[in-house]
Specification:
The complex is a heterodimer of chains A (about 280) and B (about 100).
Chain A (H helix, E strand, L loop, with lengths): L1 H15 L11 H24 L8 H29 L5 H5 L19 H25 L3 H29 L3 H14 L11 H8 L10 H14 L22 H16 L7
Chain B lengths: L5 H4 L3 E7 L7 E7 L3 H12 L7 E6 L11 H5 L17 H6 L1
Antiparallel strand pairs in B: 1-2, 1-3
The chains are: A mainly alpha (about 280), B alpha+beta (about 100).
Chain lengths: ~280, ~100
Amino acid sequence: MRNENLRTLISRLKTYYMSTFDTRPETREEALVETLLRLADDRLILGHRLSEWTGHGPELEEDLALANIALDMIGHAAALYAYAAEIEGRSDEDYYAYFRDDIDFKNIAMVELPRGDFAFTIARQFLFSTYSYFLYDLLIKKVADEQFNGMLQKHFKEIKYHLRHSREWVLRLGDGTGESHDRMQEAFNEIWMYTGEMFAVDDFDEAAINKNLFTDSKTFYDEWKSFVNDVIEEATLIVPDNDQYMYSGARRGRHTEYLGHLLAQMQFLRRSYPDAEWK
Amino acid sequence: MTDNPSNNTEWPLWEVFYQPKDGKPFEHAGSLHATDAEMALQNARDTYARRNEGIAIWVVPSDQIVASSPEDRGPFFDPANDKPYRHPQFYSVPRAVKKRK
């Protein structure tokens, strides 16, 4: 009896707080929502970081390109959130972006790191877009949910462009001037310990994998590695050590200090004026 | 430093053309700066093809375009002014051809 009361309490709390203390998704709906939010949070946070370049790009044309990619990624996140909101019976997707705290965000740490210099932004975009490319390619073949799969197919086209754009920049900066070469190398060295989270699979992922709603990212790790290695070497750079310490735990709420600051900026207006509208 | 420092710091200029539909001629969209041909194509996509303007893009280094000069305007274009017979509308269509339509 007591146990049942506790279970009721937990499930009630869960409707109010999606947090790191969530229990493993049991139902198909829970697994689907968890997967949608993990994908969406990565894309919203990286999209926001890219948007910080608006007005600060190295050239007008690159400013536009980065803002375009930012908009694409925030758009992907919005579509995924909207589907999660539909399943959870929320009025709209804004709740996920604006009314959760940092501990509830399920993104990997790599996407929340400050934008750094242009080389760092490009290194991160290249590594993440390569990961997205292989991930979506597999998900499209595997995901058994029609609406979810439709979104993935639509977004995949844009991911291909993000990959092409960032890859070309890695080649040009790596094999460019002495300064651009050094900065590009430094960016890869700095970001490398955050790449491990892309390929970490926990029991939340497994719940979704078992229901054909997600895929094991380890299955494409070798492809990711060989593609990334080829580009880095073609850019006359050195591939950082893959066996170094890897950051972990962000998907379950253990974020870097940077996420809180990002959210403060992103969420401030909506939280201070919840009823504000675009006029 | 050279006399004109902007030559060193600015990326080369490219002209962008896009094709609105299959079979249609390419139209000039504008120009942009880019490091090389591949980046010019990508920048053209981001600058001029965001609103479904077309299905194909050409980029050409601006300094490779050979243009007529303002002084050419008279000798190049004025002679056409008084030659309306160069337009197909100048000729009336024979009745037999009209009927067939």
